[in-house]
Amino acid sequence: MLNAGVLGAGHLGKIHLKLLNQSSKYQLVGFYDADQEASKKIEEEFGYKSFSSMEALIDACDVVDVVTPTIHHFNCAKEVVTAGKHLFIEKPITHTVQEAKDLLELAAKHNVLGQVGHVERFNPSFMAVSHMIDNPMFIEAHRLAEFNPRGTDVSVVLDLMIHDIDAILSVVKSNVKTINASGVSVISETPDIANARIEFENGCVANLTASRISMKKMRKARFFQRDAYISVDFLEKKCEVVKMKDAPKNPDDFAMILTNAEGVKKQIYFDNPKIDANNAILDELESFADAIQTKSTPKVTLEQGAQALTVAMQIIENFKSL
């Protein structure tokens, strides 16, 4: 088992503490949070050991889970990796792209593994179909949430859209060519609703919309590729795959056949992949433990986290040029 500790015991930090404590792959040694009064309450209520300093916690761990506000990510992560400890860090990886680059260099220098908490990669609906997404040419994603003051210290792009940015970058095997985006601040000082159009060098286009001022929640993505349409509902944990193949000469009476303008006939097939229920946060944490134990590449590397942040910041920069 790996000795693990958590930096930051806010809303998400408490969830990570609970899951690390339950995991068979980690031994939870405790946590550190700058708010000593809140730390004392958590220690009394849940029995997790509260450390008096960040350095003391890091020293007691093999793995440190950074769940602090984003603005503190780099400073905390720097302390972790320079101490030679493995790093799990919540998304976005850092507050700035330069910090992400510096963190990559530090992790390589100190020969430690890192994983970024892009939890939608472990969403069972996405995991059920991600291997079927092959060279998509058009992608549409909607991530809508009701207003919650927590998280509004950053743009909706870094708060919500970055989930879809990472998922899309994981399946589109091409570099970003151009980005066009717009964002509007309604309640917060930073944009609360945003739309981005990302064009990749291979011709794929992704259209992303994110809002944190919606009346209902939605987290859906649709992937269109040659002879297939794949839909993922991250919120409801559902997916749908529609495939088209050349129609047989003698289709059965119930076959769905489409004929295009050139007279080519295609048969439509519906596929409902098996979705295995899981706890995505626990799975991402335990997959990192596996990567450490087997000295293999983590599922969401620091490099991938940096790429998602780079695209997110390019979208935000697009707002400023309007």
Q: Can you lay out the helices and strands and say which pair or pack?
A:
Elements: E1 2-7, H1 11-22, E2 26-32, H2 36-46, H3 54-59, E3 63-66, H4 73-82, E4 86-90, H5 97-109, E5 114-117, H6 124-129, E6 138-144, H7 156-171, E7 176-184, E8 193-200, E9 205-211, E10 218-225, E11 228-233, E12 238-246, E13 256-259, E14 265-271, H8 280-294, H9 302-320
Parallel strand pairs: 1-2, 1-3, 3-4, 4-5, 6-9
Antiparallel strand pairs: 6-10, 7-8, 8-9, 10-11, 11-12, 12-14, 13-14
Commentary on this structure:
The chain is an alpha/beta fold. The protein folds into two domains: 111 residues, Rossmann fold; 139 residues, Dihydrodipicolinate Reductase, domain 2, CATH 3.30.360.10. The chain contains nine helices and 14 strands. Helix 4 runs parallel beside helix 5, helix 5 runs antiparallel to helix 9 and helix 7 crosses helix 9. It is globular, with a radius of gyration of 22 Å.
Unreliable stretches covering 5 or more consecutive residues = none
CATH class of the largest domain: Alpha Beta
- Strand line-up across the major sheet: 7-8-9-6-10-11-12-14-13
Q: Domain count, please report it.
A: 2
Helix count from the secondary structure assignment: 9
Indicate the radius of gyration in whole angstroms: 22 Å
Terminal-residue CA separation: 52 Å
Helices and strands: which structural class? alpha/beta
| Oligomeric state of the chains in view | single chain
Succession of helices and strands:
EHEHHEHEHEHEHEEEEEEEEHH
**CATH architecture classification of the largest domain:** 2-Layer Sandwich
Query: CATH homologous superfamily of the largest domain - what is it?
Result: Dihydrodipicolinate Reductase, domain 2
Organism: Rasiella rasia
InterPro entries: Gfo/Idh/MocA-like_OxRdtase_N, Gfo/Idh/MocA_Oxidoreductases, GFO_IDH_MocA-like_dom, NAD(P)-bd_dom_sf
Pfam families: GFO_IDH_MocA (PF01408), GFO_IDH_MocA_C3 (PF22725)
GO molecular function, one term: nucleotide binding
